[in-house]
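[job 0417] fold request received: HAD family hydrolase
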Amino acid sequence: MRLVVFDVDGTLVDSQDHIHHAMSHAFAQVGLEPLPKAETLRIVGLSLPVAVRELAPRLSDAVQAAIVAAYKDSFARARTQGIAPLFPGARDCLDRLARRDDLLLAVATGKSRRGLDAMILGHGLQGRFISLQTADGHPSKPHPAMLLAALSETGVPADRAVMIGDTGFDMAMAQAAGVTGLGVTWGYHPPQVLRDHGAARLLDDFGALTQAIEEWAA
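[job 0417] inference complete; emitting structure tokens
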């Protein structure tokens, strides 16, 4: 068996508007001006407390904690109005890979388990993933803990696994776990960042990604 691990935000779902709106709301709640969208998106993939420390390193722990709480509240309310859409081709890719009897699918995401469960339910992706690794129980990417847990749960060795992601955090996590990293260019980090952090290949759409995974699994 081989294991294919997907990031979520920026890889499977286009959540940039939800993320930027929630972070802007959170900063406003503590009296700060919202950050530019590009600045917010550069931290997508990190666990939320780590992301806030990256965006506002000079603020006190108490203010950072208030931003985290406000972000969670805003994002939870946004989910009641609709979930972030899948990128074009994502469902077809997952469906095709899930039909293979030599591949296992998993998720490693900086989202909370509650947020991941809402995404899976909202898009009808129940049963696609055998392992769900979230920020709730692991250190933030690029620490390899999430990937190592997925490998342990599935019994697949690192050299038979691949990590699919859109950020340097994903690629660095893959390298740290001894897993092949495939970078997708439709997400939140530019291609050069993915290369610099060890992406074995870069793919520009889900059709190319599906083909690359099938070639890797051949």
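[job 0417] notes: The chain has two domains: 2-14+84-217, 16-79. The chain is about 45% helix and 10% strand.
[job 0417] exit 0
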